[in-house]
UniProtKB/TrEMBL annotation:
This is Hydroxyacid dehydrogenase. Residues 35-216 form the FAD-binding PCMH-type domain. Gene3D superfamilies: 3.30.465.10, 3.30.70.2190, 3.30.70.2740, Uridine Diphospho-n-acetylenolpyruvylglucosamine Reductase, domain 2 (3.30.43.10), Vanillyl-alcohol Oxidase, Chain A, domain 4 (1.10.45.10). Belongs to the FAD-binding oxidoreductase/transferase type 4 family. It comes from Herbaspirillum aquaticum.
Length: 468
């Protein structure tokens, strides 16, 4: 290993080959603080050429490598295992925005760019990069692409895959594939780009991408609507889509217990209603005409829902500050859960039309398996993705509850499968769900996935133990 580390130092500089425990600690523990791996070193290349050199060295010395962006993932996809024979390849220094083309509505960015920086750079040329999620201040676009991240704008703009036009990738052999043309039409054979998006670094390392930009909307309005049931939320979704069309860019479902936790752990936040309601929907409308036009649409939609008894109460943000306050309620749920204690998380999707039935059936099954548990259900109702989380009953120790995780996962995931859904909607599989997926993928799918892995990474060095 001495020769290998010496070659790495020669390639990228000794200051960027981290081996001391104090320097590597932040790279080895997952975002939730539940797991800490071990590594030979943390390598911090500055560009794609240095990444390629390091990958070649890893291949020559048979050293596994774990690519890492902002390390904000939730399925142990960006941290090494306990063997200590791998290196972490941090892409945070690949953080340049190479080009912005407002006419082509594209931006060429390196993998280590923080998502929020992309949003700001797009806004500087009066464009929108619509990917938005709670970790946007620290997650990187390379990680977003590697996990095919979703976020709050999927209803209108699609997952990260739909926002990408081209990639630069370092293969397992240390070769660079560069396809950064920014084309929306290119029918010249297999679309290699789609192999690497969502592969979680198991087939190659994304070092740069061309992403889509959109015109900045002239107005963005937010509303919070109180309802009785998820079934009513689905009815409201249908009406909103019929009235607003593609201007409806966000439709988030949150249970009352979710927002109780937010208000409990963040006392500065308050619900804008006099009384609590069982369910809430946060809607966002992005209008290219004017704020008055958007507000008229929203007022008509919500007024109709109130008249029909579909909605129990509603508030439309009257200012940017009020809009941010409403979104902050939604974005604080995960942190409030963490303050409340450990919980069992599920990032699942089911057909939108079946979400209400799924929640009713599965809530009952989970209560049978763990009586008294508290459901923290929220998520992107408009695209069928729920963060279906389970908190311990009051008085039950976190450790005792987490010991039941396998049983509760089985109840939830089997129910997801029966409803024609997926056990990973936007977080990926990582190491956490690698074995679990074997129950739900067909043998043919698994065989083809393994064949692709073998073809592109014959030494099995790229992010080992993840996905497959």
């Amino acid at each position: 290993m001495t020769d290998f580390l010496a070659a790495c130092r020669a390639a990228i500089g000794a200051a960027h080959v981290l081996t001391d425990a104090a320097d590597t600690a932040g790279y080895l523990t997952d975002q939730r603080g539940r797991y800490t791996g071990r590594a030979l070193a943390v390598l911090r290349p500055a560009d794609a050429a240095e990444v390629a050199t390091l990958v070649q060295l890893c291949a020559r010395h048979a050293i596994p490598l774990v690519p890492q962006g902002g390390n904000t993932g939730l399925v142990l996809g960006s941290v090494p295992d306990q063997q200590g024979n791998a290196v972490v390849l941090s892409l945070r220094r690949l953080n340049r925005i190479r080009a912005v083309d407002p006419v082509n509505n594209t931006m060429t960015v390196e993998a280590g760019c923080v998502l929020q920086h992309l949003q700001e750079q797009a806004a500087a040329v009066e464009r929108l990069f619509p990917l938005s999620l709670a970790a946007e201040g620290s997650c990187t676009i390379g990680g977003n692409l590697s996990t095919n991240a979703g976020g709050t704008g999927v209803l209108r703009y699609g997952n990260t895959r739909e926002l990408c036009l081209g990639l630069e990738v370092v293969t397992a052999e240390g070769e660079i594939i560069s396809s950064l043309k920014g084309l929306r039409k290119d029918n010249t054979g297999y679309d290699l780009r789609d192999l690497f998006i969502g592969a979680e670094g198991t087939l190659g390392i994304i070092t740069a991408a061309v992403v889509k930009l959109f015109p900045q909307p002239r107005a963005q309005l937010t509303a919070l609507v109180a309802l009785q049931t998820p079934a009513q939320a689905l009815q409201l979704l249908q009406q909103a889509q019929a009235r607003c069309g593609s201007a409806l860019t966000g439709f988030e479902l949150m249970s009352d217990f979710c927002l109780q936790l937010v208000c409990k752990h963040f006392p500065d936040q308050r619900l804008p209603f006099a009384h609590a309601h069982p369910q809430y929907v946060l809607l966002e409308l992005s209008d290219n005409e004017s704020e008055d036009h958007a507000r008229t649409i929203f007022e008509t939609l919500i007024g109709q829902a109130l008249e029909q008894g579909l909605a129990q109460d509603a508030v439309i943000a009257a200012s940017l500050a009020q809009s941010r306050a409403l979104w902050r309620l939604r974005e604080s749920i995960s942190m409030a859960q963490a303050h409340e204690g450990k919980n069992i998380k599920h990032d699942i999707s089911v057909p939108i039309s079946r979400i209400a039935e799924f929640m009713e059936v599965t809530d009952s099954l989970v209560q049978q398996a763990a009586p008294g548990c508290r459901m923290v259900s929220f998520g992107h109702l408009g695209d069928g993705n729920l963060h279906y989380n389970v908190s311990p009953p009051v008085g039950v120790a976190d450790a005792d509850f987490l010991a039941r995780q396998g049983d509760i996962n089985r109840v939830v995931h089997d129910s997801v499968d029966r409803f024609g859904g997926s056990i990973s909607a936007e977080h990926g599989l990582g190491a956490l769900k690698r074995e679990e997926i074997l129950r739900y993928k067909s043998p043919v799918e698994l065989r083809l996935m393994r064949a692709i892995k073998q073809a592109l990474d014959p030494q099995q060095l790229m992010n080992p133990g993840k996905v497959l």
